[in-house]
Each structure stands twice: as C-alpha cells, then as structure tokens.
Hints:
Elements (H helix, E strand, L loop, with lengths): L6 E5 L2 E6 L2 E4 L6 H9 L10 H17 L11 H12 L14 H5 L3 H22 L4 H7 L14
Antiparallel strand pairs: 1-2, 2-3
Amino acid sequence: MPTSTTRSVRSSSQSISSSAKGPRLGVLPVGANRVDAIDVADAPPLDRGGQVYGNARLVLRLRNAIIHFRPEDRSAEDELDKLQKGLRERGFADNALMEGSGNPWWPDKALGYGAAEWAHLSVQALSDHVSDAIGIVPIYRKVEAGGWFGQAPGEGEPV
C-alpha cells in the first residue's frame, strides 16, 4: 500500500492506522480504541474529568478487580477501598439476593443487577459519546429503534 494513502496516529504506545481500505485497529488496551477514534476523526477530545469517562474508568477497575482477583492481606486504605467508595457513590441498588444476609457489601451486596445495569449504561454512554463525536451510528441504536430492546419476551402478551 502506498505511504501516501496511510495515516497513523500514535498515542502512548497505541496506534490506529487509517488507509484507503478504512481504519485498522492494532492490539490496544481495553477502551483505548474508543478514545483514539476521536483523535483519528479530528473530533474534540473526550473530557477525562467528566462523568462519562469517570464511570467508564470505574467499570474497567471493577472488571479488573473481579477478573484479576487474588486473595491477599489488605491494608485499611488500599485500591479496593477506593473502588468500593467509587461504586457506592454511583448509588446503584444492592444485590437483592443478599438483603439481610449480614455479608459484607463488597463483593456480595455490590455485585448484582444494580451494578450490572450501571456498568452497562456507563459503557453505553461512553460509546454514545464517542459515536456522536466521530459521526457514526452504532448498531445497537438501530436495533433499539427497531424495538428489539423495548419489550422482554412474553411481556405484554395475553395471559
């Protein structure tokens, strides 16, 4: 491919190449392609101090705490305490299955429908923000417009 038709953007050891065939994403950390897509599209940068970015970062920290869990002794003020504080500030509902159990908030009461819904909406808000900034319509918006997410199976059917 001629070099005149290729443009590369480098950001903290991450790269996205754009060519006559369209953009190609290399191996990037989770979420990096969304932020770098804004750079490639010459759109205004994402406000890294804003709620959309902050929630998405917290979802990533939550994911990492679950996926990369290792039992260990903890100090009173460690990374997990900061994660718990950030999650509590989001105000989502506790896991109803653990109500009255006497179990600690993390992870038993923290991880349930409320956390899952908050995480989904937070990541979707980031995706919406980036999609709007670069001028594309994500497939899930088309699906939502078609009514796919509007009604659960069996809901509203005659009994």
